[in-house]
Specification:
four-stranded antiparallel β-sheet; about 25% strand; 10 strands; about 35% helix; about 260 residues
Amino acid sequence: MTATGPDAARKRTASFPATNLMIQAEHLRKTYGPTAVLDDVSLELATGEGLTLLGPNGTGKTTLLRIVATLLRPTSGSLSVAGADALKEPEAVRGAIDMVGHGSWVYEDLSALENLRFWAVMGGHDAGHARLRAALEEVELDALADRRARTFSAGMKRRLALARVLLGRARLLLLDEPFTGLDRAGRKWLGEFLLSFKARGGALVVATHSFDAGVGVADRVAILAGGRIVLDRPAAALGLEDLRRLYDELAMGPGTAS
């Protein structure tokens, strides 16, 4: 999420209503001219729940994540995050949300520790040395704290970006293709990190093409096609082969963007 300094971060602090729903979106629609990127999308996500969002390129996955992250306004529809109206009070709910996009968005010429210190100061979080080192230790980068980020692999940069999440109080984590560019060990580590985030009471939305890794962190699986959610089922009710068959039938049919 974009931060504008400690004062702005304090203004974003919200007293959220007591609710088990982390996301409640109803009839979201996003158009650009005559083109509807999202068309009547409704979904709910509970605290401690993970949703894996599957769909070909061009079907609106990133647009949906950006709307939930309050980085983009829908053309119509309603959205609440942790019980607060995210469209009327976007600044208030941003403290509960963190988003990790396609890129790692690390500063290549800064060390891992310097990257974290910058993010902490700009986000209004604790920038104490011990707190920063603890975050790096949790993502297994503590031994590389003083190395410049440009020397890191794609997986290490992804870990550094996730260390930023640990600095704040995010209750909702949105990830866009988080498994891309990771080797087998990196995917395993990321899956364990996301399961741990859920176990601590966080909620996840993971947009991915990676069936195996994506389903591994999901309580529910949804397929987005043509700007609409065409399937939303418990992950436990779907075998991997069944999911691939449904994906081919629902998302890869005639007229679906790729």
